[in-house]
Amino acid sequence: MNDYPGRVRTGLDNRENWWSDMPPRTGRGPRPAKWAVLGTAFVLPSFIPTVVELTTDGVTAEELVIAGFLIAYGACYLLFPLVLRPSRRKRTYLFSVVMLLLGLVLVFLHDNNPYILIYATAVLAFTLPPAWAVILDGGALLLVAGVHLVVGTDDFGDLIAVASITAAMFFMANLVRAVRKLEAANQEIATLAVAGERERLARDLHDILGHSLTTITVKAGLARRILESGKDDSRALQEISEVESLTRSALTDIRATVSEYREVSLSAEVAGARAALRAAEIDADLPHAVDNVDPVLQRTFGYVLREAVTNVLRHSGAKRVKVRFGAAWLEVEDDGEGSEEKPGNGLRGLAERLAAVGGTLTATTPPGGGWLVRAEVPESALRSVARAPLSEPAGGCA
Q1: d(CA 204, CA 199)
Q2: Cα distances (Å, whole numbers) of residue 372 to 49, 348, 369
Q3: 177 CB-contact burial (10 Å; exposed 0-12 / middle 13-18 / buried 19+)
Q4: By the 8 A CB rule, do 12 and 130 touch?
Q5: Which of 325, 247, 235, 250 is nearest to 281 (CA)?
Q6: Contacts 24+ apart (CB under 8 A), 64-67
Q7: How many whole angstroms separate alpha carbon 370 and alpha carbon 317?
């Protein structure tokens, strides 16, 4: 059987499951008081007739010994849920073997009646790994069968019934294991979903606020310088008006992002980059159309352009920026100081977005200096993206 990433193997077709302990409960199990009542209800129908039989016509020393074993055996059945803890693994194994031995002793002391062994074989099915349960339960039943053959008993009906009930308990225990594993997997999925949503929100807010606030800062700074010079009040008012418009737009984008309805447009990002670079007094060489970019990549490339231009405004000290597009690639190059620092949150988030469509992101320093960011998607990956709907990566930036 083929293995799939993230698949939860719960059945006995997996070797690891044969030797693994019973998974812990994910929720609150039955309370000890309730189990004591339920366990007693299971024990009494078998134990009362035996006790009555032993105490009829007086009590001998042998019968007292049998009664002692019977009480200890019944106590083990009532107390076995208390040993089902991962921190008590050795104690669990010892407890199970002792209870099985008590059951075998009672079988041999009580005319080889195998029914008393059911309590021990059922407990082993629930407390031990499946492999050990098969070995010990099967060994005990074979031992009783061997004694039957030695003493010349040819009635194996009771033993077959006990073996059938033991097998049913074994598969019921495996069902409990599978349910507990699936419950644990569901809890993990829920936790990962919450973490993924947090990362998505952090990444999108970074992409939106990083660019918008940087542009607002640049435009506000330009308006301040114009007002301080006292030369062009109308230009300052225009920049302040654009700051107000950008603030409203950023607020709208944040609301849409939280609702997961916001779509990025490459053409809109080109226009926004031109306005932001102009306000920062950076010469921008930008394409006037984005028709040559494959439509399935325009949203992803819009994020790349937004983050690359934001980095230019924040860090580079550049005087000129050149942007070029292809069907499946995008380049943003500036003549700033360049950097050998590790990629920040923005570039990591872009790398994750490109990885989701099978592409790569590189950020290097060209021979002439500056900084070059290139996003590229291979043709084979582009065909896959065209056939399948785009999905947001789970990772992101903070």
Answers
A1: 8
A2: 88, 15, 9
A3: buried
A4: yes
A5: 235
A6: 65/109, 66/106, 66/109, 66/110
A7: 10
Of 54, 76, 158, residue with least CA distance to 120: 76
- Residue 301 to residue 312: CA distance in whole angstroms: 16
CA atoms within 13 A on the CB side of 254: 14
Residue type at 164 in one-letter notation:
S
Instruction: Please give the single-letter amino acid code of residue 147.
Output: V
Q: Give the pTM.
A: 0.51
**Residue pLDDT tens, the chain, 398 long:** 444 445 556 667 778 888 887 777 765 555 666 777 788 887 777 777 777 776 676 667 777 788 888 888 888 888 887 766 666 778 888 888 999 999 999 888 877 788 889 999 999 998 889 999 999 999 999 999 988 888 877 678 888 999 999 999 999 988 888 888 888 887 788 787 777 777 777 777 777 677 777 888 888 888 888 888 877 778 888 888 888 888 887 777 777 666 555 567 888 889 888 888 887 888 989 988 888 888 888 888 988 998 888 888 876 678 899 999 988 999 999 988 765 555 566 778 788 888 888 899 998 888 878 889 999 998 887 777 655 544 444 333 33
The C-alpha atoms of residue 201 and residue 289 are separated, in whole angstroms, by 30
Q: Enter the tokens of residue 143.
A: 């031992």
Both tokens of 340, joined, read: 């050998």
